[in-house]
């Protein structure tokens, strides 16, 4: 496509500002999939852009698209391998540990290393199943433990336990169910992911992950964390 700069979009305003009289676009096609485009801006040449010249570049654009897609697929394969390796490592490590504290520490260390977060806690239901109590934590602050138990019926973690589903909160300061806002404000925590620890179809606690910046988790990351949580719950029950 060849376009003279006679439109009112932000892109064409930018072209006019840079004294570019015309621009052309060639799609990067891999099969029927559009991966992007090559943009050609004609500024100094007095020869106008011609469709025939652009058509001659199409085979090159197609080769570029194929190369890009191959790199993307390679990166996806590496991510899948990293996920499987992490799952295997955790599974093998947990199978050899029969100390509860070591199990909890191992799970937290793996999550922090692979996912990346500013705080990670593991919380257990108490005997009454009405409160959650922190058992292990990664954080620069130890004040979280001083906050004591959290009511199941009035907390994000409690919702994760009731629904047996992971709960993501983009901003804890705006979440009515999040009860530790003073602590979150002091520690500058923003996003939270609460993953239930499920064994024999019942939740026994949660893994809570916090970040100071807004973090949205991909499906692969959520699947990986769910796998960690299932392995941890099994080892905790065995202990």
Specify Rg, calculated over alpha carbons. 26 Å
Oligomer: single chain
Low-confidence stretches: none
- Average the pLDDT over all residues and give the rounded result: 86
Principal-axes geometry comes out as: elongated
Helix proportion: 40-55%
% residues in beta strands: 25-35%
Main β-sheet, spatial strand arrangement: 6-5-4-9-8-7
**Number of E-type strands:** 9
Q: Order of helices and strands, N to C?
A: EHEEHHEEHEHEHEEH
Structural class per helix/strand content? Answer: alpha+beta
**Distance between the amino and carboxyl termini:** 66 Å
Individual helix count: 7
Outline the biggest β-sheet: 6 strands, antiparallel
Task: Give the gist of this structure.
With 239 residues, this protein is α+β, with helices and mostly antiparallel strands. Helix content is 45%, strand content 26%. A hairpin with a 2-residue loop joins strand 2 and strand 3 (33-42).
């Amino acid at each position: 496509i060849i376009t003279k700069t006679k439109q009112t979009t932000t892109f064409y305003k930018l072209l006019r500002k840079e004294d570019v009289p015309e621009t052309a676009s060639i799609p990067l096609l891999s099969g029927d999939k559009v991966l992007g485009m090559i943009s050609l801006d004609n500024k100094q040449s007095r020869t106008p852009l011609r469709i025939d010249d652009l058509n001659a570049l199409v085979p090159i654009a197609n080769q570029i698209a194929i190369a890009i897609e191959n790199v993307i697929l390679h990166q996806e394969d590496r991510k899948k391998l990293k996920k499987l390796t992490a799952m295997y490592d955790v599974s093998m490590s947990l199978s050899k540990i029969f100390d509860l504290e070591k199990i909890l520490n191992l799970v937290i260390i793996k999550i922090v290393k692979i996912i990346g977060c500013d705080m990670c806690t593991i919380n257990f239901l108490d005997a009454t199943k009405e409160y959650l109590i922190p058992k292990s934590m990664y954080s620069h602050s130890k004040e979280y433990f001083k906050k004591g138990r959290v009511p199941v019926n009035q907390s994000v973690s409690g919702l994760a336990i009731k629904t047996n589903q992971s709960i993501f909160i983009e901003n804890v300061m705006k979440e009515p169910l999040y009860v530790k806002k003073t602590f979150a404000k002091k520690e500058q925590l923003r996003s939270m992911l609460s993953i239930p620890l499920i064994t024999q179809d019942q939740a026994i606690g949660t893994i809570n992950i916090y970040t100071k910046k807004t973090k949205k988790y991909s499906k692969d990351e959520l699947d990986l964390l769910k796998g960690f949580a299932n392995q941890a719950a099994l080892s905790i029950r065995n202990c």
